[in-house]
């Protein structure tokens, strides 16, 4: 690992989502024992509590964006919090909250990489590409736009969040598990050259080959950021999300994915997004998420030969 000092940052908002409830995600992860599980692996964990931000006014889109001022406020607060932890040489785990928060988190990580001369690699584990724009999505929900905004497609207030536009280029991103992309979004993903390992690719090639490709080039100079949307998982095992899409990775596929990321020893920041306890069954999805996060930090069945 690059560091064993971990900071938990709760971001209790569903401001960018189309369903209420992701605002309760941070507490569900805490109830599922996230801190104790990480500490059981010898990691020093500090829970920084929850960030503060505006409430969800639940209004229709304005000029194609829903809740843009509130989304900006939450993501600005998150950007500053993540950047502060990275500058302290700590590993931030962002407890979402909806996935619009990937914007604040990753823009901070990208800024830190520019400051330290590191190469950023983002693994975006999700059922959705989140590469929409106001012109492409009728809902205006910004949780469908963060990757596009990070790559410079969106309103200047969001694309310039980390002080640099674009915050990242598409070649920094590897998307895994994608199985729901809007028609116009497909074209933009293709034009931007985003590298996407969709479920067909995983079905045909297997999760091991997928991760080998997604991690190709990761080395000692790489800051590896994982943005884990819980709807990445098949809804049969993870019902507690607002935007379920059938046909996602199984429990074992997801475990292999996390274990192979852990094997790199380069994980340096993490988002856990879109957990919606209002749609869950007895906190089952939160417990599964914690189980998978544990694998990201080194849980394995056997001691492996290096």
TrEMBL record:
Pathway field: Nitrogen metabolism; urea cycle; L-ornithine and urea from L-arginine: step 1/1
Signal peptide: none
Keywords linked to the UniProt accession: Arginine metabolism, Hydrolase, Manganese, Metal-binding
Superkingdom field: Bacteria
Catalytic reactions on record: L-arginine + H2O = urea + L-ornithine
Class in the EC hierarchy, top level: hydrolase
EC number: 3.5.3.1
Annotated InterPro entries: Arginase, Ureohydrolase, Ureohydrolase_dom_sf, Ureohydrolase_Mn_BS
Cofactor info, note text: Binds 2 manganese ions per subunit.
Necessary cofactors: Mn(2+)
PANTHER family: ARGINASE (PTHR43782)
Family stated for the protein in its record: Belongs to the arginase family.
Name assigned to this protein: Arginase
Organism: Hydrogenophaga electricum
